[in-house]
## 1
Amino acid sequence: MKKITFLFLISLFISSCNQQTDKVIDTISLSSEEKIDSTNIKTLFNSALTEGESYEWLRDLTQNIGSRLSGSPEAAKAVVWGERLMKEVGLDSVWLQPVMVPHWVRGEKEVATYTTNGTQKDVPICALGFSIATPKSGILAEVIEVKSLKEAEEMGEQLRGKIVFFNGAFDNTLINTFKAYGGCVGQRYSGARICGQFGAKAVIVRSMTNAIDDYPHTGTMSYGDIPKDQYTPTAAISSRAAEILSADLKKTPNLKFYFKQSCKTLPNAPSFNVVGEIRGSETPENVMVVGGHLDSWDLGEGAHDDGTGIVQSLEVAYLFKKNNIKPKNTLRIVFFMNEENGTRGAKKYAELAKLNKENHIGGLESDAGGHTPRGFSIDANLSNTKLLKSWKKLLSPYGLHDIDKGGSGADIGPLKDDHVTLVGYRPDSQRYFDYHHTSTDTFDKVNKRELELGSASMASIVYLMDKYLYNNTPVKP
C-alpha cells in the first residue's frame, strides 16, 4: 500500500511539474506583437502534428522512386514527382530550371577480400563517386595504412604500387557529429589526388561514420588537377572492416588486398531544379528561398539525405496555405538537383537569380536529416544574426534552443551576400551518420513525429524571417 501511495504521489508531482512548465511558457513576458507571433507559431506546430503531409510525401518519394543519383532515370522521375506535388499543394507558380549535371554510375556490385593466416575475409566495400573502375580482373596489392592526408604526403614514394588505406576515424569526443565528419572527410575527397601523384595503385577509405558497423558509406571524391594517368580506383570500406584490417596489418604488414569495381563517368545529363512559390503580398520583389536537394546517392532510398529536407521545405508552404498565412515577401520552395556530386543545381539557381536581378533577402536549407529539431545556424551580418537570436524565447518552448552563428547549406550557400540572411535547419545529429550515404538510408529510419516537428520548426522561423527580416535588411546599392 505504501508503494502504491508513493507512486501516486510521484505521478502527481510529475503532472504538477508539467502543468507548471506550460504555465511558465504561457505567461512569459512577451510584447503584444510577440504574443501574436507565439500564437501563430503554436498554430503551425499544431497543424504539422495533426494535419501534416510530409511523412506520406516522403513515403511516396522513397518507396515509389527510391535513390535519385544525378543523371539517373530515378532522378528524372523525382523531378516529375516534385513538380506535380508543388502544383497539388497549390503554389502560385511552379516551374523547372534546366541544369546539366554529372552522370556517374556504379555498375556491378563491388567486391573486396584479403587473406591472413590462411583465412579469407570478405570486406564490405563501395566505390566513391567519380572514381574510375579497377581493371576487369580487379586490383591486388599490398596495403599501407595512413591516418591523414598529411601522413600520406609525408610518405611520398613509399606509396608507389600500394593500396593506400586511409583510416582516420571520427573524433567521437565531439558532440557535434558534423564537426567530426568535417575533421576526416578530406581523406575521402582528396585521398586519391594526393596518392595518385606518388604512384599509388588504389585508395580505400574508412567510411565516414561514428558507428562501427558493416555498411560502407559512399560519397564524392576528386582527382583535382592531376593527369589522368595518375587516377587511381577509390572506394570506401565499412568502419568495422577498417578496424579489422588495421589490426590484421599489425600482425601481417605485407598482406595483400583485392578489390574490383566497374563504375564510370558518362557525359553530363540534362536535369532540373524544381521551383515553386507563393507570391509576396506586400513586397513580392523580395525573395525568401526554402529548400533541400532532390538528388541522393544510389545505395539506399535517400530518406534522411535529403528526402526529409525536400518534404519539410514544401510543408513550410503547405502550412502557410493551410493556416491562411500570407507571406509579405515571395516564399520560394526549391528542390535543388545535384548537391551530392557537384552542386550544379545550386550554382545554376544563384546564376539565374543574379541574371534576373532577383533580390533574395533570406534562405533556409534542410540537409541534416529528419531527426528531432534542435535549432538553426545563422550565416548573416551582425545585425540580422542578433535579430534571429532574439527569437529564441519564441522558439525554445519547442526544443529549438541552439540558435547561433554557423553555416547554412551547400545549396543556398552560393546566394551568400552581406544583405542575405542564410539559415541552416539543425536537427539532432547523433544518428545521422549511421545512415549517411549508405544502403540503410531508408524510409523506415525516419520517425513521423520528428519529421513533422522539423517542418513546423522551419515554418516558424520562416514566418518570423518573413515578418521582420526585410525591415532589418540593408538595401542593396
Note: The first strand starts at residue 93 and ends at 105.
## 2
Amino acid sequence: MIVAIDGPAGAGKSSVAKALAERLGFRYLDTGAMYRALTWLALHEGVPLDDGPALEALADATPVGFGERGTVTIAGTDVTQRIREPEIDAAVPVVARHPEVRAVMRQRQRALGREGDSVIEGRDIGVVVVPDAEVKIWLVADPAVRARRRHAERDGLGMDELAEELRRRDARDAPNTHRAPDAIAVDTTELSLPEVIERITTLVDEARAGVG
C-alpha cells in the first residue's frame, strides 16, 4: 500500500509522514530530500544549476539513498543535515524546476514506492508520482500556523520574514503543487500531531477494509 502526502510548505507533511510511517510500520520516503541531496551534490561538484542535462546526468549516475532513522545519502556521503541548510533552501527550486531532473526523480520515487508499503510525501505525489496510491492526503494549515512551524525549525529568521518567505514559496511552487481529485483534505491548523496521525490511520484502515 502507498499513502501519498501532499500539501504546501509548513502544512506538516514531513512530521506527519514520518510519524505515520512509524505508526504503520511503512517505509518513509521524503521526495523533497532527493532534490535537496542532488542540489547539494551539484553545488559540491560545481555543476551549474541552470544546466538541466548536466543535472539529469548527475541524478541518473548518483541515486539518493535512504537509511534507517531518516538518514539521506548521496555519492557515499551522509547529507541528512547538510541538505537543510539555507544555501540548499535557496538553490533547490532552481534544480527541481528542470523537467529532465524531475523525470529521473519520479522514476526513482516510483521504484522505491514499489519496494513495499510506503508513505511518500512531497509535491504532486498523488497526481504525478503515484497516481494509483491507495490513500491520498492533502494537508493544509492556516498561513500563520505554517509560519510558526517554520519558525520553530529555523534559527535567525523572524516571523514576518518567514511569512513572506512562505508566500513567495507558495507562488513559486504552485506549478508543482496540485491536489489529486480523490485526495482527502486534512486541516492541521488546530490538530496536534497525534490527532492528525490518528485521523489518517483511520483512513488507511478503511482503505484496507475496502470502505468508501
Note: The longest strand covers residues 135-140.
## 3
Amino acid sequence: MRERSPRLSVAWKVGIAGVAAQGVTFGFARYGYGLFLPEIRGQFDLSVSLVGVIGSATYISYLIALMLVGILSARFGPRPLVVAGGLSAAAGMLLVAYAQGTGMLITGLVMAGLSPGFAWAPYSDAVDRMVPVRQRERVMALIPSGTAFAVIIAGPLAIIAHGPSWQYAWTAFALAALAVTVYNARILPGGPHHRSPRTPQQRLGLRWFARRQAVPLYVTALSYGLIGAVYWTFAVDAVSQDLKEGDPTGPVFWTVMGLAGTAGVFTGPFIERLGQRRAQACLFLSMAAAIALLGVAPGALPAVGASAVLYGPGFMACSGLLAVWSYQVFPEQPSTGFSATVFFLGIGTIIGPAALGSFADHYSLSAAFLLTAGIAVLTLPARPGRAAGRPAAVTPVGEAGADTSDAPRAGTRG
C-alpha cells in the first residue's frame, strides 16, 4: 500500500493562505505603485505632488475597505472579505496594466488599494477560529511577512519588464492575485464568529474602541502608516532620480529590501525575547535610520543598501507587532479591534504621501525623508503597556482547537 503523504495542519494552511494574500494585496497591488513609479511617471507625465495625491487616494480606498471590514466581519466571517480583497487586487492591477490615460490609471490604483484593507484584518478572526490557542500569536506575527516575499518577486520582475514592458509585470501580478483568491476561498471559514457562552458580549460603542490600553496602539499604528506610505511611495523614485533610464538600482534596492524583510518570519520569537515595549522601540529606530539615510544620501549606494536592509525587517516585523498587540487589547472580537487599529494606520497612509509630497515640492524629497524619520522617532513614547505580551484569555469554541498539530512557527519556516 502507498503511504499517504502527511497533510498540512489547519494552522499551516491558514498561515500559507495569509502570507500569500498579504503578498498579492500589499506586495503587488499596493506597493507595486512605488516600485514602478519611474515608469508610470514617464508614461503618464505625473508631477511629484500628483504622485503623492494618487498615493493618498489609494490609501483612502484602503481606509474605506477597513471600515467595511469592521462592520461586516462579525456577520460574514473572513472568507467573503478576503475574497473581495483578492478580486479587487486582480481587477485593479489589470486596469493599471492596460490604462490608456491618467483617469483609468488612477481608477485601477484606487481599486487595487482597496484590496489590503479587505484582506488583512479578517485573518485575526480566521486565526482565532481555526488555530489552537498556543500557536495563534506566532501565526498572526507570521502572516504580514508575505509582503516581503512578494517584494522579492516584484523587484526582479521590474528589472526584466522595465520601460513600456512594466505592464506585463502588472498582468502577472493580477493573475497571481486570482490564484491566491481561489486558495483562500477554499481554506477560510465564513459566517458569524461564535464565541464561548462564558464570554460576556459587549456593545461595540465608542467606549469599547477607546479603552485606555488602545491609545498607544492607535498612535503607533498612525505613525507606522504615515512613515510606511512615504517610504513605499517615494523611496525608489528617490534612489533613481539621478540614474540613467533602465538602470537597475531601483529594482535591486526593492529586492534587497524584500530579502531583508523576510526576517519578519522571526517576529514571533523576536517579540517573545525582547517584549513588546523594547521590540517597538527597536523597530521604529530601525525604520527612522533607514528613512534618514535616504534623506541624507539617496544617491550613495552604501546608504541606499543600508536603508533597504534596515527598513525591510523593521517594517515587516512592525506589522506583526501591531497584529499581536491588537489581539491582546481586543481579545473579544479580534477582527473588529484590528480593523480599528488598521483604521488609524490607514489615516496615516492618507496623510503621508500627500503631505510629504507637497512638502517635497516646496523643499526637497531629501528634506521630506528627514522629516519622516523625525516622526518615527517621536513615536517611541507610545509603547505597549507593561502587561503586553500576556496571552489573550478568551478561547472560542467551534473550529478552533480541533487541530493541535504544529502551526507554522515564525522561527522555523516562512
Note: Residues 1-5, 389-414 have pLDDT under 50 and may be disordered.
## 4
Amino acid sequence: MSAAAAAVLMAACAAQPGVAQAPASGPAPLETRAAQGKGQVPAFPGQTRAPELKAGVAYEVSDYVTGIEKPWGLAFMPDGGLLITEKPGRLRHFKDGSLSEPIQGVPAVDARGQGGLLGLAIDPNFSKNGLVYLAFSEPGPDRTNNAAILRGKLILNAGAPRLDNPTVIWRQSPPLASALHYGGRLVFARDGALFYGSGERSILPGRMQAQKLDATLGKVIRINSDGTIPKDNPFVGQAGAKAEIWSIGHRNILSAALHPKTGELWTIEHGARGGDELNIPRKGKDYGWPTITYGVEYMGNPIGEGITQKAGMEQPIYYWDPVIAPAGMAFYSGKAAAAWKDSLFIGGLGSKRLVRLSLKGEKVVGEEHLLVETGERLRDVIEGPDGALYVATDNDKGRVLRVAPKR
C-alpha cells in the first residue's frame, strides 16, 4: 500500500473507529457518482456500491394497463385479475383487457403531497372470504391526517363493483399536519399477520417519534387481519408502548416483500440525500432513524450528530448513496427467467429505473439497472402468475408495464 493510500485509510478509520473498509480491489462498483455523505464509510465490506452484475436476460416491454392516474399499488388475485390503487383515491380491477369503473366503498383520502390511496394486499384466504386491505392517508380536522388500513370484502360480479363492509382496522398515531412520509406497503406474513411500513411524516415532530414506543410513526407495524394485536409482538404488555409495533427507527418505508425462502420481511426506506436503506426488520430491533443514518439533510447539513453507527442500533444490509428513491419491490421466483431467480427487483422513483439486486444470503453481491430507457418514475413492481414483471409508472397518465423475458 502506498503512503498516500495508507494515510487516507487511517484518516477514515480515525473518523469512525472500528469501521470496516470496502476492499481496495475487486470489481468496479456500478455507482460511480460522488456520495452525498462525504467522509462516511460503510460499516462492512459490500454494504454499498455493489458491482454491476448482469443476468443476461433479454426482455420486452409492453403496455398492460393504460388509462389510469398515478397507480400506486398492484396485486394479482387468484383468478388472474389485477387490482390497482390510484393515488387520487380509486381502486380498479383489470382482467381480460377490461378496466373496471372505480370500485365503490373506498374511503375518502387526503391526496395532498405523498398522500392518497396507497398500498394494498389480498387476504391469504381470499378465495373463501373475499377480503382485501387498503392503506390510505385519512383526512382529519385542521388539515391533520394519518395513515390507516381498511379492510373490505370485494364484490365484482353482483352489480357495480364494490367493497362490502369497509372497516378501518388500524390508524397511525398521532395524527399530524403533514402531507409527507406515510409509508404505505402492506405485506401478509406466512403466519397470517399483516405488516405495514409506517412513515414518520417527515416533519420534526414526527421524525423524533420514530424512536418512541408510544407512537406508531417510523415503525414497522404488525397486526392480525382483523386489526387485533398478535400476542407475540415484542412490546405487548409494556407500559407506555404501542402493542402493534414490530420494529422502530424507520424513516419512510415504500418497499416491502417477504423473502421467498426465509419468510422474513424485507423493506427499503427512503433516505434524505443519500442513505436509502435495505433492511430486514426483526422483532423489537431499532433501525436507527434519525439517530444514525447514511447521507445528509436535503440542504446538505448533517442529520443529527452526523453519525452512521451506534451501539444497540441495527445497520442496513445495503444502502445507496446517491439514492435510487425506492418504491415497490418483489422477489422473483424464476418462473419465466431462471437467471432472475431469487433476484430482488425494486422500482425507482427519482432514479427512473428498475433496480435488480443479486443476493447471496443476506448480502447484496451485484446490482443491475433495467428500464432506464422508459424515463419514467416507477412506483410498484410485482411478479405476475405468468412469470412476467408488472411495473406501475407514477404518472398522471399512468400505466402498468408488462416486462416479459423473451423465450
Note: DSSP finds three helices and 24 strands in the chain.
